[in-house]
Amino acid sequence: MFAKDFLALFYPSLCIICASNLLKHEECICISCLHQTPKTDCFINSKNDVSERFWGRIKLENAAALFDFNKDGNAQKLIHQLKYEEGKNVGIFLGKQLAYAINESECFNNIDIVIPVPLHPKKQKLRGYNQSDFIAKGIKEILDIKVNKKSLIRIENTDSQTRKKRFSRWENMMNSFDLRSNKKLKGKHILLVDDVITTGSTLEACAQKLQEVEGVKVSIATIAVA
Questions:
Q1: Do residues 104 and 89 make contact, with C-beta atoms less than 8 angstroms apart?
Q2: How many domains does the chain have?
Q3: Are residues 144 and 210 in the same domain?
């Protein structure tokens, strides 16, 4: 502990939003910036902006996002750090914040397994990690729910979704995922986690594949909604 405090004198931990020195009890982002990051009401109301995006498309138990993703806002900065700046610790921290919201929500009950949305092996090798894996790890640290990273796999290395419209995104995701070890999922309530939801095409494709397993129920939770 002394060595850690000594190093902090020369290499202080800084808030990834405002670059101020973090206090001992703070991780990645200071309390002030965290409070200024706009939260959704998704974990309070089951009928919310996220769940509505899947109406008529796929049956979900619940769907929610923690933050509103606004251009140049705090949530966008957090996601950028998570995806493009070797943000493994950021992923764990955000996963913990998601877990606190899940734990306090009456909408999310009896989750058996957490499954992070997988990256294609080539994309994961290029980035060095899958950001959703670390979100799932943060959730597990708080809620102690098993994480399964092997059963759902990505078999198509699809183009970037960023500039595509809804139908193009959906078309881009068709047949992009496959299942392994189906028996481990039979009859389970799965929490599918990712960083950001826009049209929901990726999450829809994942959920459809998971629901091919007998008795599977799916809920969705993401860090932000755009």
A1: no
A2: 2
A3: yes
59 by Cβ neighbours in 10 Å (0-12 / 13-18 / 19+) ranks as exposed
* Residues 107-161 pLDDT 10s: 998 999 999 999 999 999 988 999 999 999 999 999 999 999 999 999 987 655 4
Number of H helices, E strands in the chain: 9, 7
CATH of the domain at 118: 3.40.50.2020
Residues 184, 36: Cα–Cα separation, whole Å: 41
18 with 46, same domain: the answer is no
Q: Tell me the pLDDT band of 172, cut-offs 50, 70 and 90.
A: low
Its domain, for residue 28, covers 1-36
Residue 182 DSSP one-character state: G
**Tens digits of per-residue pLDDT, 68-105?**
999 999 999 999 999 888 789 999 999 999 999 999 99
Query: What are all long-range contacts of 163-169, with beta carbons under 8 Å and residues at least 24 apart?
Result: 166/199, 166/201, 169/198, 169/199, 169/201, 169/202
Please state whether the predicted TM-score (pTM) of the whole model is above 0.70.
yes
